[in-house]
Amino acid sequence: MNHQIESPLVSVIIPMYNASSFIEETIQTVLQQTYSNIEIIVVDDCSTDASYDVVSQLCQQHENISLLQNRKNSGVGFSRNAGVRHAKGRFISFLDADDLWLPDKLEKQVKFMLQNQYPFTFTAYQFADESGHPVRKPIQVPMKISYKEALRNHTIWTSTVMLDLDVLTKEQIAMPDVRKGQDTATWWKILKVTGYAYSINEVLSLYRRTSQSLSADKLAAVKRTWNLFRKVEGLSILQSIVPFCGYAFNAIKRRI
Predict the structure, then answer these.
(1) Secondary structure string (H, E, C) spanning 142-196
(2) How far apart are CA 234 and CA 78, in angstroms?
(3) CATH no. of 3-211
(4) Looking at the DSSP assignment, which residues form a beta bridge with residue 10?
(5) Which helix (H) or strand (E) holds 67?
(6) What is the value of pTM for the model shown?
(7) Rounded to whole angstroms, how far apart are CA atoms 202 and 200?
(8) Crossing angle of helices 76-86/182-194, nearest 10°?
(9) Nearest Cα residue to 126 out of 118, 114, 134
(10) Fewest CB atoms less than 10 Å from the CB: which of 34, 120, 165, 235?
(11) What pLDDT digit, counting tens, does each position of 55-64 carry?
(12) Residue extents of the structural domains in the chain
């Protein structure tokens, strides 16, 4: 059997902005995957630190890494969309520039999707400190999640997602033009097409919480979610209340 059919190409999309402290370690966790048919697409959003140079060096060492650069700083959603447009793989995986993957993440997820013919999957994950060491208990995820369930439980973490372009189109997985929360809004959009996203309830990704992300304004996150319900999903105030309460409950539960 053709190796390419057994192991379809996975395109790993990494948006990057001022991530020079972490980007090499992040990319190394992709290069060290037990699954080998991978292309890595890093999209630099006009970093002002050494991020671009770090990845340029890696590109010279590894032919499966490509580096794109936005003409102007345009946000993470725009960067991911640019990466997807450039992608040649059947499967799309997203990885944030400071997050980490366990070595068998892609192998397990591709096998899971091929065996079950799932177009949209995600996995459990665990928070990590700035050094990349796991902290706190793993974030468990439901076996599957629907659109209505995803509105009130934002359990799908971007760096765990894999999508099948044999089923979905690049247009269907394109992220909306909002600066914050565009990944969550995208999962909602895709769930309206697929019905469900299915999970591997095993920690295969580490969500690095830097001092910057730890100090993120919680009020801003609340406003962002309410804005997604009202302006992106077009829900009325009444329709927004129940999923918003569910979101708040689940967000608190994940952090205790």
Answers:
(1) CCEEEHHHHHHCCCCCHHHCEEECCCCCCCCCCCCCCCCCHHHHHHHHHHHHHCE
(2) 22
(3) 3.90.550.10
(4) 38, 91
(5) strand 65-69
(6) 0.89
(7) 5
(8) 50
(9) 134
(10) 34
(11) 999 999 999 9
(12) 3-211
